[in-house]
Amino acid sequence: MNILITGATGFIGRHLVQRLQKNHHTIKVVSRNAARASQVLGVAAFDWDYATQDVPAEALHDCEVIINLMGENLGEGRWTNARKHEMYASRILSTRKLVAAAPSTLQAFICASAIGIYPGKGDDLYDESYQVPDHLSFMQTICHDWEQEAARIERSGARRVSIRTGVVLGDGGMLKKILPVFKLGLGGSVGDGLQWLPWIHIDDLVSVYAEAAQNTHFRGSINAVSPNPVRYSQFAAALGKALNRPAFFSVPALILKLTLGEAAALALNSYRIAPSRLLEEFGFKFKFDHLTTALDDLFAKTAH
Ligand SMILES: NC(=O)c1ccc[n+]([C@@H]2O[C@H](COP(=O)([O-])OP(=O)(O)OC[C@H]3O[C@@H](n4cnc5c(N)ncnc54)[C@H](OP(=O)(O)O)[C@@H]3O)[C@@H](O)[C@H]2O)c1
Fold it and tell me: Does the global pTM surpass 0.90?
């Protein structure tokens, strides 16, 4: 298939491009820096500044699937008003432009979304049957509006899939940020450690995207999290063990809030999420459904 990917130079995108190439798809990407993207990924790349330009026509020529991953990283420090605007616009405005520019050859629009669409509190288990209420937090608003923009593609008859992604474990994202501290033996929990962390191994997430691109049964919003979420304190202990380091330190919630402001929600919110549709509707088989095997796999590959 001819597949256009946005945000392909990021953590998830790099892995996804490799998998889709292995599966003999033809990949094009759009990027803020096409020369760099083409060099890093080894695929055709086109410059696109979503804020000021339309999607380049060459990128969409004969395109059958769009996979939309682009967006300002939420985990890069404090959420100033300018960054909050960029986090929102780089997802919502870009999605609107991609949907508006979709060619008649398009069969599916696969768009990132996040578990941030759920309330982020307590021990209740949420799945895709959750009804989004009227009053939403900032993260819920981004995810909700992102999914609504993507869903507009359905008017053209194309399939839409929104992948509500949990915390992705691999050689990027959250793990890359906290690993140096854990490797020094200074890692540990945050807040009271009771908050739920809905993780997924990068290989499984890439399989979800690859399947969503090809399998016409995949439609609508789908949770991409492992079937066994853990509490943050369990996660910290398992990571310490996988690295063979102590993980007894704990960062109080107040310190995190003073340091990161609103962005502290990324570590302190509690998301107990089930991948109900993947398991029950699609019979998806996770390669890594337990945290210890996921971490063992990653550290056999990356830590040494
Ligand atoms: N990683 C996770 O744990 C996780 C969890 C839930 C949801 N997600 C979602 O999945 C998507 C991909 O995640 P990721 O971890 O691969 O992200 P990432 O590593 O931060 O990469 C995102 C890519 O988007 C483009 N981008 C970044 N800021 C941009 C901006 N301000 N305007 C336009 N383009 C921008 C960049 O590509 P160019 O530089 O080539 O333009 C970048 O490589 C994101 O939308 C993210 O919200 C990720």
Answer: yes
